[in-house]
Every structure is written in C-alpha cells, then in structure tokens.
Amino acid sequence: MTHPTASPATDRFPLRFARTHRFSLGVPRLFTVSPDGERVLFVRGTSGTDPVSRLWLYADGTERLLADPLAPAFADGSPERVPPEELARRERARVTSSGVVSYAADAAVRLAVLALGGVLWAVPTDGSAPRRIATAGPAVDPRPSPDGSLIAYVSGGALRVVRADGSGDRVLARPEGADVTYGLSDYVSQESIGRARGFWWSPRGDALLVARVDTSGVRRRYLADPADPERPPRVIPYPAAGTPNAEVSLHVVRVSGGRTEVRLPAAADVDHPGGEWTDPAFEYVVAADWDAHGPLVTVQTRDQRSVHVLAVDEASGAVRTLHREHDPAWVALRPGTPLRLPSGALVVPARPGGDSQGLDLGGVTTPPGLEVREVLGAADGRVFFTASDEPTEIHVWSYHAADPGDGFVRVSDAPGVHAAALGGPALVLDSRTPGGHRVTVLRDGAPVGTVAVLAEEPLVPAAPLALSLGRRALRSHLHLPSWHRPQDGPLPVLLSPYAGHGLQLVLKARGWPGAVAQWFAEQGFAVLVTDGRGTPGRGDAWEKSVHGDRLTAVLEDQIDALHTVAADRPELDLGRVAMRGWSFSGYLAAAAVLRHPEVFHAAVAGAAPADRRLYDTHWEERFLGHPDVSPEVYDRNSLLDEAAALTRPLMLVHGLADDNVAAAHMLRFSAALLAAGRPHTVLPLPGAGHLVSRERTASGLLLLERDFLRESLGRRSESEPE
Question: What percent of the chain has pLDDT over 90?
C-alpha cells in the first residue's frame, strides 16, 4: 500500500481522539429550561480535554458556574465511592466523564439536586452556596419535588425522601428482599428500551409513581477481570433472549404514608397480531409520567407487537386504556411519546400516509413523508419534535396545538442535525452542522445568546463526498485522502459503517465517526460509510426490513454501495476491500468476510455480538423472535456455525469488562474458528467496557487496526479468495 508520511496533525489524532473522549468533552448537554424561559441549566466541563463535568446556569445572556466538584465547597466530608447502581446507570448511558453526570431540577428551576460519589447536594440557582444533604446511605438518582421542598432518592434499593433543608430523611418504599429495588430502572429498560428512570413525582409533590423491580427470576452473569484475578466478579442480572425478564410493577407511593399498586393489564387481548411466536403478556413498562391529569403509563407485550397507553387512577390503581398500537413485526417506540397535552389530548406515534413514521397530535397527523424522530415536549401551546424530510438531516419542528391553523413549522434552518430543549417562550437549539457545533438560545423565535461549545477540533477536517448510491439511493459518505492524486495509484477501500438498527452515520453534521473515517483515509484508504436498510429515517418498511434476518439485506446494501461508487471512481481498488466496525457493525464486518470473501478481503470486528442468543430479550426478540420457538432463525443470524467459511484475515477485538456485549461472544466465536482450523487475530482489552474510554487503549486501538488492515490488504491484490 502506498501512502505518504503522515502529517504531524494526523499523527496526533489518535491521542486527541482518546483524550477528548471522542471529542465529547467540552460539549454542553442535559439542558433544562425554566417555565418562564429565564434560566437554562446544563452540564459541561471547562475545556475540550476536561473530563470533569460541572453544572452551569445560563441567564441574562451569561453563563455562571453553579457546581464544581473540584471546588473546596464540595470537599465537605470524604466523598464515598460511586454506588454500583450509579455505575450501572452510567454504563447504560455510555457516560465516560466524571463529576456532575446527571442532575434534576424542581418545576421552576430554582433548585437543582445531584449526587457526587453517592453524596447528595442541593444547588440553588440564585447563586447561594450548594448544601450537602445528609442521607441514610449513598444516594442514587436524586430528584426534587416540583415545589423543591422535598428530595426523593434511592439508596440500598429503597426509595427515600428528605426535606430540602436536610431534615426528616425517611424511607417510602423498602425492598422486600435482596433482589428487589424501588425507584430504579431494570437492565433492559435502560439498555434497550430507553427508560432510564424509576420514579416520577406527582405535580402536587404529595406522591410518586414508583417502579418496583424484582430480578429474582433473572439469570445471573458473572463478569470477572482476568487482569485482576483477586477481584471478585460482578454479578449482573442479565435477561438473555428467551430467558425470564425482571418483574416490573408500578406503585403510587404517598409521602404521607401508604401506597397503591397500579393494576397493570396482564396481557393484550384485543387485536394482538399473530405470528410463529406470540407472547401477549405485558412484560415491559416502556414509559411513565405524571402530569396534571394523573399518572400515564405505557406497556408493551413480550413479543413487542402491542403497545397500550394507560391512564392511572391514583387512588385505586385502576387503569383505563387511552390508546392501542399494533404491528405484525414490532411496535416502534418513539422517544418522548406518549405526551399528554393540557387539554388531555395525546401525542402518539402514527402512520399519516404511505410509509412515514409520524405523529398523531390530538387527532391531527404530521404530513406524509415527514419522519418523526423524537417528541421534545410542549410549551406555550406548541408541541416540539424532531423530524426528517431528508434522511441525512434532522430538524426541530413545532405544531401549535391551540391554533392548528398555524400548521407545522420547521424551527431549525441550516442543513444539519438539530435538537432542542424548551421552556415557556425560550428554546435552546442544539445544532450540529457540517461547519461545526453551535448552541443557540432563542426567545420568541429570535436568537438572544449562545451557550459555549468547548470541544477540541479533530485535527483532520472531514469533507466527505455526499453520495446517493444504487437503486435504493443509499445515503453514503466517501472519504478520500487529502493528499491523493490520480497518479498515486488505486486506493484500498475500507467500509466503516454502523448500518444497524437505531443509528445513522451518514448525516450532514460534523461528528467523531466522520473524523475517524477521515483519519483512516489519511492513512491511505478510500473510506466508504453507508446507511442501508434497517437504519432509521427512511420509513417503516425500510427500518423493519431486517425482521427475521439481520444480515442479508444489510450486507447487500453495503456491497451495492461499494460497487456503485467504484464504477464511477477508478481510484478505488476492488481487489483490496476491508470492513471495520464496533458492536453491530463489528458483527457485520465479521459476517462480511465469512459470507462474501469474493468482495471483502479483511475485517476488524470489535465487540461483535456473534451469538445472538447471548443478547438481551427486548433487543434480540424484536428482530428474531424467541430462540426456543425459532432456533433456526438464531442459527442463521449467529456466526459460530459459519466459522469454517473464514478465508480472509479477521481481527476480533473485545473489552473484557463489557456487560452489554459480553466477551463470551468473542471467545465462543474464536473457539469455533480455532476448532475449524481458521487462523485469526484476537485482541482482548482488559478493563474496557462496551465503550472503550481509557486513553491509551482507545488511541492504541486505532493504530493497531490501521496496521492490521494495511498488512492484510497488502497480502493479495486479487479479488478471488484463497
């Protein structure tokens, strides 16, 4: 492979990539806007290399630091170790920073509460000094009552409440056994459903809706660190596909004492779709809230084909079904839904026409062709949501529920990926565009200020060619070396997609995936990134085309994109093609060299879920059903039985502390390859989880991948397998 000597900036990229935690440090996040629009809380470090997050307030056009974990004020008492429940929450959320990683505020955003190392702090937003609140034990997920007078938190699996002045700490719900918790979310809800919370205050502050989780029936996994054999293993209740889930129930718990269990329906008995495997039991609590009309709960069946939205009577626990949704494959869960408007009308997912995944806003549907991504909330009579009419862009939209004549209005303007937080007349618009990242504070639609983005620049500016390839108009980015000229000769091709459910890479926005792709391009590769079938943003049928088969259509689209772009660009060498990826795309990369060695000549497969039976219930059963009912489907979608087909260089990389895609995936796959006599490379990462965050490990991994791919693609130039 011919490539010039790397530039100093290119040489420094891997370490900067790792040191900045994928350029995420210094980026403001977790915005909360007060109802009057005057105050905005957010979390951010002090620079693009500062791993300690602080709590900040934006008001009157300026930023003010509210809580600095490194300040002397927070040295009051010895900080306790981060509770294991909090560590699990951070792992599920892929949080790699320290300090203030989460917080909650009262309704007026006058008081914020947070936990640092299990120590509870109350932080007024008026400039008063933070107060340490004594608790019965390490505090997890503290949340103030709407009026700010009380703070609820979880400690030792019990839900407790304490007054904001630090007095009156007492238990509200005590676990009945070691496998029971109150106020925490279970593994599947956090990892695969997206429900991180386990309790919700009533608007009056006199009661809470609380999740009780019983994991006694869930099978255990034991996660040890081979690099530290004296450390005992972590025990994780992990519901793998086809095995029992945690039992989740809901309870109305009153601050004055007493509680009422919510009488959730046992199963869907109306219009539930059939199939080879059906399970109409409502095992999943996928969303919950408590608004002015009372508690609102959404449940989903085990087979994910039915979803019911339920109104809860707080006195009796009785429920009333407000909305039903069914689908023969699975009911897609739209973040932010259901939302109940002041009138009582619901905002729920809908199919407005054609194949669009839209919304029903109290009887009015979004226009066909507008793909709704998330509902952000409602303020000043308007409902705000994000949506796409072109899959490479995501914009903020609004709908005036009180005046439908206003229609649907696009709030964001510049091509890119936009999100928002709202409160009263204010909107915090978080915009990632090809030119960079900007956070703008709007009032009544007009810009009034910005929140600083302090992230480091990636050193290798990416300017990919935006392409639409093949008969499916596959959205793709092609990254070429900045130094390459036609006389330099053909370039080996590296496919670097994600291509899995729930995530896009081909977007009109700067981000770390594009920076990494450009870095590999500067190493001498033509890097192609393609979002094919199964990825979001292109309709219901597109997203669900992977139902029952997670590989065939996805690989077809990657190959189609590769051949289409190579037909127009002779500098791409189809005799030297590789794929690299992590998680789903690691699985895809391994499948590529197993199933299509005539196309792919090498692969790096990171954290690849090679044995689909080892992944969790909600995620895996959505696509493949139940492994006991359809074992052949799991066999076809797992890689172990295909090990003998390997004829190309393959590197398997896996974090040994990964509790999402367990290292057992890599070890079983490697054992199958060894038994078949197929040479391969194994790179274990001691201490690394699903997200590799250790600086030297993350930077070194990029270099090892590069060297492996260079060596592997330099072995042969023919397109035929050996």
Answer: 89
